[in-house]
Design brief:
Elements: H1 2-6, H2 13-42, H3 46-84, H4 86-113, H5 115-122, H6 128-141, H7 143-160, H8 164-189, H9 192-207, H10 210-215, H11 229-260, H12 266-301, H13 305-332, H14 334-342, H15 349-363, H16 366-381, H17 386-409, H18 415-423, H19 436-470
Helix pairs in contact: 2-8, 2-12, 3-4, 3-6, 3-7, 3-11, 3-12, 4-7, 5-6, 6-9, 7-9, 8-9, 11-17, 12-13, 12-15, 12-16, 13-15, 13-16, 14-15, 15-19, 16-19, 17-19
Length: 471
């Protein structure tokens, strides 16, 4: 029974997407419960701002090197090697595990030493007490990228062999770890308990996948070879994507820095709204994109051009069908959503109104944000990480400029501020400058989606049409 559970296999993209969507829904419900507990325990105040700011640096390492680098490079190459030689693919896997473990330990140790400077960089508006607290939390949470790095390799294995059930448990266990920290550790350790919960969640994110990976045929070997040409290819694909994810994380850091200079609680307001709007993106966009990634990678590795196009087109339409209606509902019922999730404990009415308005602005670009993960994975399956990197960097630059401009514009009374206050019923709230952040992100996200769509169509035509001519 246990063996069957850890080795449950899905054979269709829609089935895998359904499992991931349910998992994402559970994970996001837990995430909302996490937000509820954070808001109830700390409110939108200075202590929670410290935790969120401290979380940014370890999260930077995770998103740049792991979510945006290791898995993106590993799965297409593992698909290519496994289709040729299984032994070669498993040796490649062990080498990846050992090299990335070594690399992440060294990197996180260096960042541990430079935590004081990094905290001052991302939160220039913090006082000395807040900075000291953020340094402690940041150093502790540097354990989580190490666990996530190992986890990403096993995630690639499970995705290739369609073991999406076990893979889907990872984010659930991660959120449960954080909730455990809030409920059982925070009463004794304060906000430090939340950080410990992050590390516990990351550990279980990693360990739950090991039995299933072994069931797929993985057998760990103490193999460590930096000169392996396959590892060099991993880094060749990773480097452009790393720059793209670094740009995205710099974007978040800049947003955090801007928010830290606005009215107290602005970081929390932005994060609450951002986390709520990520619900449909995670459940629909990322679930379908993740489920399609192995199929797209296999189709390209096996030179099945028509199947690649068919899978991409089908998933694109499915995402769009679901996400448009959800976006409209979020915009219409944004006040009620915020009221249910956040309006309790120390969370003020003003904070709730600004969070609701931020959610409304985010909802304008949910369709684009939900389709971007699929377009990214289509390009990654073609072993092209340069195109999405260039587009991501351009979009981030555009967003940063917009964020500075719009927050500055909303600090003073003008026609634009009056229109926003009228549209979102914010009369009586003097400072609404935090709304410049979600508005800038929505505009930049739609811009990024348009560019990615254009270049993916161009890339597919060049690769597949030229290949068909050769055939």
């Amino acid at each position: 029974m246990v063996f069957q559970f850890f080795n449950f296999k899905t054979n269709k993209i829609f089935t895998a997407a359904g499992i991931l969507a349910i998992s994402s829904l559970i994970s996001h419900v837990l995430g909302l419960a996490r937000e509820y507990l954070l808001a109830d325990t700390f409110g939108a105040g200075l202590e929670l701002d410290v935790y969120l700011a401290a979380f940014r640096i370890p999260d930077l390492v995770y998103n740049v090197l792991i979510a945006g680098g290791i898995l993106v490079a590993f799965l297409p190459l593992f698909s290519e090697y496994f289709s040729r030689n299984e032994k070669e693919a498993w040796q490649f896997t062990s080498n990846c595990l050992n090299i990335f473990l070594f690399f992440l330990i060294i990197l996180c140790s260096i960042l541990f030493l430079f935590s004081p400077s990094l905290v001052k960089l991302i939160a220039p508006g913090f006082n000395s007490q807040q900075i000291n607290s953020a340094i402690i939390l940041t150093r502790l949470m540097f354990l989580s990228p190490i666990f996530f790095g190992l986890s990403s390799i096993f995630s690639g294995i499970l995705q290739y062999f369609d073991r999406f059930l076990i893979y889907s448990l990872c984010p659930i266990l991660y959120n449960l770890g954080i909730i455990f920290g809030i409920l059982f550790l925070t009463p004794f350790l304060g906000v430090l308990g939340v950080a410990i919960g992050v590390v516990i969640g990351a550990f279980f994110h990693f360990t739950v996948q090991i039995p299933s990976a072994i069931g797929c045929g993985f057998s760990y070997k103490l193999f460590f070879n930096f000169k392996d040409w396959r590892i060099k290819k991993v880094f060749t694909l990773m480097i452009p994507r790393t720059f793209a994810m670094a740009a995205n994380q710099i974007n978040l850091i800049v947003i955090t820095a801007i928010a830290s200079t606005l009215t107290p609680g602005s970081i929390s307001i932005f994060n609450f709204a951002n986390n709520i709007q990520s619900l449909p993106i995670g459940i629909i966009g990322i679930s379908f994109a993740t489920a399609a990634f192995p199929a797209l990678s296999k189709s390209f590795a096996q030179n099945q051009k028509d199947k690649f196009r068919e899978n991409f087109s089908l998933v694109f339409r499915q995402i769009l069908y679901f996400v448009i209606s959800i976006s409209i509902l979020i915009f219409i019922f944004r006040d009620q959503i915020v009221e249910i999730i956040l309006r309790h404990g120390q969370f003020s009415l003003t904070s709730a109104k600004l969070t609701s308005a931020s959610l409304g602005l985010f909802s304008l670009s949910i369709f684009a944000a939900s389709l971007i993960p699929l377009i990214f994975r289509a390009l990654f399956s073609l072993q092209d990480t340069k195109t999405p990197t260039i587009i991501s960097i351009i979009s981030v630059g555009f967003n940063i400029v917009l964020s500075f401009f719009l927050t500055h514009l909303l600090k003073s009374s003008n026609i634009f501020q009056i229109l926003l206050k009228s549209a979102f019923s914010l009369q009586g709230i003097e400072d609404i400058s935090v709304l410049g952040l979600p508005l800038a992100i929505s505009i930049a996200t739609i811009f990024q989606f348009i560019l990615l769509s254009f270049f993916l169509k161009k890339k597919m035509r060049i690769i597949f049409d030229d290949s068909l001519k050769k055939d």
